[in-house]
Design a protein that fits this description.
The protein is of the alpha/beta class. The protein has eleven helices and ten strands. Helix 4 packs across helix 6 and helix 7 packs across helix 11. The longest helix is centred in the last third of the chain and has 18 residues.
Length: about 260
């Protein structure tokens, strides 16, 4: 529930339930205001639900102390805006070092090597970016740095909230392919939040369609896209670009890691 001035309380989510498993990607689809970002905030503990609960391995997530810090290491978020999610006053090295040091995940003499490994993992050349500041990189490079920072804590689950919506169309596919490769190779569970059914189909095992805080359709990605049962899903599909043309065009414009 949110308190809305002059209107009382507004229910942001209503009876939403799903299971995110390691090695699987769920596409959470809906228009602005459907409740997608509220789910992300609840998962990373920026919001507290007024009812219901979030379970990790069958147990309620902790509220404080070392157990909460451990939970936050296991579930990391890649934010929508790569321009705002990185501190402009700190180097790329600092952004990736910090979670390593805070989590005690690398000995002092191993931190630099781990930072470089993570940058390579997201297909960036370490020497080209490690001592730069965020404003010196392109939007796509910044989002790759944000992904490397999320991976630094060795999570099992990743929440990607509209991770390419603020990037140039020509480089979106490269970032999405990177996330898909990481999900497969690292065995991550990924919650991919988007308004775009075309990318949700191609990069998700399962799709959940959210409308006004409620799940209106849920199932295997191809079933939801090719044979939608809910009128709202059909409206989203009609408004979505043709996926084959969309990806063919993006691939034609893709020129390396940007």
């Amino acid at each position: 529930m949110y308190n809305v001035r002059g209107s009382g309380q507004m229910k942001a989510l209503d009876d939403v339930s799903f299971t995110l498993r390691s090695g699987r990607t769920i596409g959470l689809v809906g228009q602005s205001g459907s409740g997608k970002s509220t789910i992300a905030k609840i998962l990373i503990q920026l919001e507290t639900p007024t009812s219901g609960e979030v379970l990790l391995d069958g147990a309620p997530i902790p509220r404080r102390g070392k157990a909460l810090r451990s939970y936050r290491q296991q579930l990391r978020m890649v934010f929508q805006d790569p321009f705002a999610s990185l501190n402009p006053y700190h180097s790329i090295r600092y952004h990736i070092e910090r979670p390593l040091r805070l989590g005690g995940l690398a000995a002092n003499d191993q931190v630099d090597g781990e930072v470089r490994r993570l940058l390579e993992r997201v297909r960036l050349v370490p020497d080209a970016v490690i001592d730069r500041r965020p404003h010196e990189l392109s939007g796509g490079q910044r989002q790759r740095v944000a992904i490397a920072r999320a991976l630094a804590s060795r999570p099992t689950l990743l929440v990607a909230d509209e991770p390419v919506s603020m990037l140039d169309v020509s480089i979106r596919l490269g970032v999405l392919n990177l996330l898909a490769d990481l999900q497969r190779e690292e065995g991550l569970g990924v919650l991919y939040i988007t308004h775009d059914l075309a990318t949700a189909r191609h990069f998700s095992d399962e799709i959940i369609v959210l409308n006004q805080g409620r799940i209106v359709e849920q199932g295997p990605a191809d079933d939801v896209i090719l044979d939608p049962q809910n009128p709202y899903t059909r409206e989203l599909r009609a408004a979505s670009p043709d996926p084959e043309r969309h990806f063919a065009s993006a691939a034609g414009n893709l020129g390396g890691a940007q």
